[in-house]
């Protein structure tokens, strides 16, 4: 049954709970550079997204259970969502704000536009041999990563994303086609910070962050200068420093 799903959770450190919500890869492993620093000050958790969620609500339920597992006493956490994970984190804050101590949304959006790019990506992932995706990632790396990200970190990114499944990517693309919280942003009541990379070539992150911040009461925007869409593996960017 869908509601019996409990994702594998990896927890490090002590303190207030921080749950890191993965992006399109769905593995949670791309937070590897951030976890050691966060664990110095927080009880930080990563987890994997299921690959067959029929709706965003199902993923919200999984995230709620993750938060409750990480902090079974207060049952709330600082929730950090990256890209697709930002969309999921926004959906959580709207559905169950009592589980969110604070919200950090990185390089994300309230609705993905233009939608034809989702349909094109869906078609491409459906027809391109999965074994060729490594080549696709290498050819598009210059558009995805911060320009100062070390080559070895990009190689690690390639290795980790290679473990993600075609089904998971397709499922999350299709969920984004149904996702639109633009008219509900004013309902978000938790402290919210929007982080946006100014060299993001996948999502117009700065424009999206400012759009959302203008509608979420009391929220803030921080622009990450010189960074691309995949920025949490770049040197000089510390979620620990941002959260403290």
Structure description:
This protein has 244 residues and is an alpha/beta fold. Helices cover 39% and strands 16% of the residues. It is built from 9 helices and 7 strands, in the order E-E-H-E-H-E-H-E-H-H-H-H-E-H-E-H. The chain has helices spanning 35-38, 56-70, 84-95, 115-127, 133-144, 151-161, 166-178, 205-213, 239-243, and strands at 9-12, 17-21, 43-47, 77-82, 100-106, 192-197, 220-224. It has a 7-stranded mixed β-sheet with strand order 1-3-2-4-5-6-7. The longest helix is centred in the N-terminal third of the chain and has 15 residues, at 56-70. The radius of gyration is 17 Å and the shape is globular. The N and C termini lie far apart (39 Å).
Helix/strand structural class: alpha/beta
Going across the major beta sheet, what is the strand order? 1-3-2-4-5-6-7
Overall mean confidence score, pLDDT: 92
Give a quick account of the main beta sheet: strands, pairing sense, barrel closure. 7 strands, mixed
Q: Using DSSP, what is the number of strands? A: 7
Number of helices: 9
Q: How much strand content do the residues show?
A: 15-25%
In terms of quaternary structure, the protein is: single chain
Low-confidence stretches: none
**For the terminal residues, how far apart are their CA atoms?**
39 Å
Question: What is the succession of H and E elements?
Answer: EEHEHEHEHHHHEHEH
> Percent range for helical residues?
25-40%
Radius of gyration: 17 Å
Large-scale geometry: globular
């Amino acid at each position: 049954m869908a509601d019996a799903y409990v994702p594998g959770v990896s927890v490090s450190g002590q303190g207030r709970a921080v749950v890191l919500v993965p992006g399109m890869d769905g593995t949670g492993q791309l937070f590897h550079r951030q976890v050691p620093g966060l664990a110095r000050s927080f009880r930080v958790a990563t987890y994997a997204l299921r690959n067959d969620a029929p709706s965003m609500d199902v993923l919200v339920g999984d995230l709620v259970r993750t938060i409750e597992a990480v902090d079974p006493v207060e049952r709330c956490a600082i929730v950090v969502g990256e890209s697709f994970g930002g969309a999921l984190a926004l959906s959580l804050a709207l559905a169950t704000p009592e589980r969110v101590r604070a919200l950090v949304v990185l390089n994300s959006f309230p609705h993905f536009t233009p939608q034809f790019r989702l349909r094109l990506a869906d078609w491409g992932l459906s027809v391109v041999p999965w074994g060729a995706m490594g080549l696709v990632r290498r050819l598009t790396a210059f558009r995805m990563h911060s320009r100062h990200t070390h080559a070895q970190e990009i190689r690690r990114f390639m290795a980790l994303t290679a473990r993600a499944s075609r089904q998971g990517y397709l499922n999350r693309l299709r969920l984004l086609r149904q996702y639109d919280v633009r008219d509900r942003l004013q309902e978000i009541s938790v402290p919210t910070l929007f982080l946006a990379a100014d060299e993001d070539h996948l999502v117009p992150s700065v424009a999206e962050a400012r759009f959302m911040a203008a509608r979420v009461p009391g929220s803030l925007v921080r622009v990450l200068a010189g960074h691309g869409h995949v920025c949490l593996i770049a040197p000089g960017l510390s979620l620990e420093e941002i959260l403290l």
